[in-house]
Design a protein that fits this description.
This protein is mainly β. It has a domain of about 60 residues. β3 and β4 form a beta hairpin. It is flat, with a radius of gyration of 21 Å. The N and C termini lie far apart (about 55 Å).
Length: about 100
């Protein structure tokens, strides 16, 4: 009978850690009418739609702000479009 090596402290120590899932980068020009879910809903507002991409005055300047509309209440809020990339706050699509 052959001896097996003693198990390590963590069984997955030899297995490389899985790389985090990479998402396609967001483009502010393609955000219009995209759907988003709030991770922590407030006032029963969980699902949102991008209803407006706010164009800057000089067209050469980059887009920075968008308007989201809550599906439940119709309330509109403005935020920086890169805030949507925070997975602790927003998820893409209606989850």
């Amino acid at each position: 009978m052959t001896k097996r090596p003693a198990p390590t402290a963590t069984p997955d120590a030899a297995t490389p850690a899985a790389a985090p899932a990479r998402r396609n980068p967001l483009s502010p020009k393609k955000l219009l009418l995209s759907k988003w879910t709030a991770v922590r809903p407030l006032n029963r507002e969980k699902h949102f739609v991008v209803v407006r991409v706010i164009e800057p005055e000089p067209p050469a300047v980059r887009i920075e702000r968008i308007e989201l509309e809550a599906v439940h209440s119709g309330r509109v809020l403005q935020l920086h479009w890169r805030d949507l990339t925070d997975p602790r706050v927003w998820r893409q699509g209606w989850v």
